[in-house]
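Sequence in, structure out.
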Amino acid sequence: MVCPTVLPNSSDRLDSPQSMRVAIEAASLALTSGGLARYTSELSLALARSFPEDEFFLVSDQPFRMPAEAPANLQRGGGPRSAVERRWWLWGLAREMARLGADLVHGPDFAVPYLARRPSVLTLHDLSPWMDARWHHAAHRVRRRTPVLLELGIATMVITPSETVRKQAIERFHLRPDRIVAIPEAAPPWLRPVEPTDDKRRSSVPLLSPYFLFVGTLEPRKNLPSLLLAWREVRRHHPIDLFLAGRRRSDFPPLPEEPGLHLLGEVSDASLPSLYSGALAFVYPSLYEGFGLPVLEAMQCGAPVIASSAVAEVAGDAAIYADDPQGLARAMSQVAERPEWRAEWGARSLARAQQFSWERTARLTHLVYEEARKRFAD
């Protein structure tokens, strides 16, 4: 289980809890899919539901979609109102916070306002932008900006999704350990095991036929060539298809058509429960992860998980681990050949997923907000 780092002096936080107004930067909600959008959406919903006395405002300099079924205390804030405010991180966000009377700003996507006029919390999802330039062809701004915000103390507090990332960040950015907190994420509550059914998006691909599944952005870090090599070896002996679901990033080369390989593109949230639940196994060979949210989503739907050790902190003993094509092929073959394995590892998946919830994530995040307010006031 991923355990949150205990907040320093948490017993000394604001003596009488006060309601607060929080501005959450929502540019990631302009994305149509992916972990950043999921984190921002699910966290903001869970915060609003868990703390009805507080007000939360989603703000951005870009058009974005509000999360569905948002409570009344989760509202859309404004954006830039002048040419000056289009310099969003320097002037615009600070001015919008002033208009809203916000007590604190949360940057869920590697950034906070450049001028520390109010308490701020920055979520650092992983260190992949600084690990291999080939993994992020368009991350130049993050590579330059985020270290400055961290090392100069502009972000009052920092959240990471795992203890692994927390330790990496402390070492790389020379952060004080009491300033950075590991808070695990979770799968959305609407992801549950369901009976697989066909849906209109994939009417030519019956979900009742055996298939392995990958869900995530198609990008270099996800190590999909290894998955394809492993699946081709398994398919020599077992007629099992491979579904790849997720948007293809521009730096990921198109995959040629071949029998049994189905590129689903972006899949609607409504289709995900069936897709996860019907998989013979969910396979996630990523080279590096800060958390690995699709793994937990698959587990919450009862899918057995075969994954790289990059997600070991999240998956614990509920996943079968393999870090090379040969190991992946062996694990996939065993799942194909032994139906009892699917039942055993599916049960492990469900038990593991029950240890995480967005409500818990929201409550721990709220403690960080309180700590940031206290530290900023001091």
